[in-house]
Amino acid sequence: MTPAEPEKNKSPYATMIVLAVVLLVVLLTCVPYLVTIASAEGPAARDTADASPIFGVTIPPGYKQWELIAPAEEAAPLDEFRAVVGNRTAIDAYQAGKLPFPDGTILVKRAWKRKQSPEFASATIPGAATTVQVMVKDSKKYASTGGWGFGRFIGGKPVDEAQHRTCWGCHEARASSRDYVFTRLAP
Amino acid sequence: MTPAEPEKNKSPYATMIVLAVVLLVVLLTCVPYLVTIASAEGPAARDTADASPIFGVTIPPGYKQWELIAPAEEAAPLDEFRAVVGNRTAIDAYQAGKLPFPDGTILVKRAWKRKQSPEFASATIPGAATTVQVMVKDSKKYASTGGWGFGRFIGGKPVDEAQHRTCWGCHEARASSRDYVFTRLAP
């Protein structure tokens, strides 16, 4: 276009080197972010033996890093603490007060036996971990159970089919007004 | 170097456009990551009226996104749920079983009144939020209190100096074997 400009005499290698450097910077800058996303939300190739009966739900990798939705307590005989955490999709829906939860929502309920604090008579703290319970929203795949797939795990392994048959009936009977989810976002 | 190559005849504007596009991609890709880091860990310019007396500790921005360390319960008359979360430095130290906690560790204890679940007779859930309590490790700044600065907040505002005078004595008396931190990592 302007053949007299001095840039015309530069080597094309200079442009390639600049591009290569820029791409290297992009990669180095973004890799930690991508790794975080992948480990927090990404689908993992998991052994099907680790998937729940009926629903095929697995424990999502990285769920311990997810944001807390609310703690809770179950009285005796269970005598447990619970803490429900959710992936980004879940948290965004909670914060927007959006129902039904969108596909891709995952909720995980951690649970522990309650234990007397050794330092404070008035305090109770987590003892041994007991179950991990997972709800996954996929309105097509789980159309017959309100769009939710369920998984209940002990020691990382799913409990039996009979126990998984009880999930939907209880959520359907008691939490239908809130898209079958009991837990509310703690203020 | 190779004056006969056709690239020599390209406009310099083409190179500039490619660079501009690449830079745009870099920015769009990395901004969410940088925002996450900044909101999760970064120091914030905060009103000093929001800083605790004695220690000058503030509520860290983004703490609700931090990883759960453990839930707990306080019996009546407090009758509260607690959930302690920590920044990345705190979680890494907990997972490594590393004591004392390194400088930069921040622990935040959220608290709520306990409330009967409307759906389950056996379940107790969070009611109104009560206090937010913060511990910040800075071994130089807080050398006279075990390296810890303390903040106790109600409705986002620090409580009075008299209450803040009680923090260190209790942590020193009861948790000296664990760098003055009561909360253990939930299994």
From TrEMBL, chains A, B:
UniProt KW keywords: Membrane, Transmembrane, Transmembrane helix
Keyword set includes Transcription regulation: no
Keyword check for Methyltransferase: no
Membrane spanning stretches: 12-35
Top-level taxonomic group: Bacteria
Domain Cytochrome P460 positions: 60-183
Pfam families, alphabetized: Cytochrome_P460
Protein name as it appears in the record: Cytochrome P460 domain-containing protein
Organism: Bradyrhizobium ottawaense
